[in-house]
């Protein structure tokens, strides 16, 4: 268990924080519509048989994004917070977190989780345009593992446990992406 004190360091800090939280909440809530607009942009370039996957695409994109957001919020955030709050260079230094820093950390972690979980859809589009295929994804699996670990290290604090916990579902999503690419070929 961990506890910490959040302080406001500026006159309009709580108001600006309220706006930031509203902004990021708006991004998360509007994601289904943004995905729909993206689909409308791509749809004219597809054949009729490819258009039938539009419902599957929308539901998959929404499901993956919400899974990423939920995973980041409920699993990665508590682990990261536990590590960062309890980390200390010296016992004479007290961790007092600013409200702006706390919200910024939380929102970037959650948004990054949602975006990273979109990997299968990203691979789907790269396969559709011919930039990747199943063979290439299998051949460069080791490179993908390094990239996933690097992205996990960037997103999470410098403790190995949260990095590994984030990278495990991403490894799984990469393997799902290989299956998707195989079916598209």
- H and E string: EHHHEHHHHH
Number of strands: 2
Shape: flat
Enumerate the spans where pLDDT stays under 50 for 5 or more consecutive residues. none
Overall pLDDT level: 88
Distance between the termini: 49 Å
Q: Beta-strand level of the residues, as a percent range?
A: under 5%
Query: How many distinct helices?
Result: 8
How are the strands ordered across the major sheet? 1-2
CA radius of gyration: 19 Å
Class based on secondary structure composition and strand pairing: mainly alpha
The helix content, as a percent range, equals: over 70%
Largest sheet: 2 strands, parallel
Characterise the protein shown here.
With 185 residues, the chain is mainly alpha-helical. Helices cover 76% and strands 3% of the residues. It contains eight helices and two strands; from the N terminus they run E-H-H-H-E-H-H-H-H-H. The chain has helices at residues 13-42, 48-51, 54-86, 99-116, 119-128, 134-139, 141-155, 160-184; strands spanning 5-7, 96-98. The model has no long low-confidence stretch (mean pLDDT 88).
